[in-house]
Amino acid sequence: MGSQKPLLCPWLIKQVDSCQYPGLHWVNEGKQQFRIPWKHCLRQNISADDTKIFEAWATASGRYKPGIDVPNPPVWKRNFRSALARKKHFRRVRDNRSDPHDPHLVYEIQSIDQEARASSEEEEDNVSSAVDVGHAFLPAPPNTRTLEVSLEDMTLFDYSPGNSGQKLLESGNLSKNIPNCSPILALPPFDPSQASGIVEGILGTAPDGAWAMPPQVEDPNTAMPSTSQFKEQMKGYFPNKELVTEFEVSIYYRGRTIAKEVVKNTNGLRFSYNSQSAFPYLQDVSFPATASTFISDQQQVKYTNQMLERMDQGLTVEVQDNLITARRYGRCRAFWSMGENPTSLEPQQISNKNVTVLYSLADFNKELCAFLNSTGGSPQYSIWLCFGELWPDPDGKPWNKKLIVVQVTPVTFRLLHELAHGIGASSLRSEEMNLQLSDHQLSTTSFLSVLEEFMDIS
């Protein structure tokens, strides 16, 4: 509450009105659409004017202190884009980043009412922050306790301020004054009709406006593509420099695999249990009923059912502007981590008020490049979701002891990781792989070059 950081929407409107930033101006008389210069930070002709608005927001939001911090235009730009993507007020309507003479983006303000703009929720600009501050939760119980005692000591579900913090799990009664969880999206669904430059035959469209993934890369241990073939594949993974991916989903009930599914809808998915979807552009993934899983532990059945019954509209995972985001719409809280063995024991909660950014193309690119250059380990791109219990667990309790856990793996990231692993392995095990290497064979250098060409990470 004591933060002096301005709200992004009214702040940005004021900057556009000021006419102090080259290339930043309104594009219609009603002042609903504005354009922003968007020159890639690696261009040789980039100047301070091209990043002036990004620096201004970094300064206003407290992320950059002129004269103290080292200037970092790529980070300013990435944080500015992330802030735009997380707010329901903005919708990107035109993408001219590939224009060689005037690269720019055009955004539309969804809330045109000045009062509505000013009354928007406070900005949550820490990309890694996922704590729903509106509802406090109790620490996880010690591992030595029984399942029943452990769960009874936790605030698993939302409750109203009027019931003195009485736990829903203990009482078995639902609060009638639960927070507003109406499915008003913080980010608009991706509209394929606005994309341009898609190669015919490389990428098609799938139902509900989602992009269709191209054929998967062959096993890199048996068939290494040439550089030109890899470029064609990348056109399908990153049309117009936008991430397109399917998802591999695995559902676990206390460490046991209950269901597996490949989500073909590249817009994203919704996890739910027995509820009609309010998100027609997303693919539904339903939690299996405990009665169909042959779970013998009746305490596990009891508490799993209580969590499932409070899923309501569930939890969405979406791909927007090269970010993988999530938002909770039910009363059963959800937590997340990257990888099944997170290094931090600090729980990360998925908000039911704003979208939570889980992972980004920039994160993956950084980790993949470090992996290829032998300066880092394998990228951690699988997202682990835990419902109703703290995760990561403050006491180090492993994921397979949690009641409901879901693993979500972006297929595009997995395929690129496997290909990168194959490139690295080819120099170590070339006698085993029997590859016919040539000047056109994909190498670490050419792989990194193609990534830079197709991934818009700054």
Would you kindly provide a written description of the structure presented here, covering whatever features stand out?
- It is a single chain.
- The protein is 25% helix and 17% strand.
- It is α+β, with helices and mostly antiparallel strands.
- It has 2 domains: 8-118, Winged helix-like DNA-binding domain superfamily/Winged helix DNA-binding domain (Arc Repressor Mutant, subunit A), CATH 1.10.10.10; 126-458, Tumour Suppressor Smad4.
- The protein has a 5-stranded antiparallel β-sheet with strand order 6-5-14-13-11.
- Helix 2 (52-60) packs across helix 3 (73-86).
- The longest helix is centred in the last third of the chain and has 16 residues, at 411-426.
- It starts with 7 loop residues before the first helix and ends with a helix.
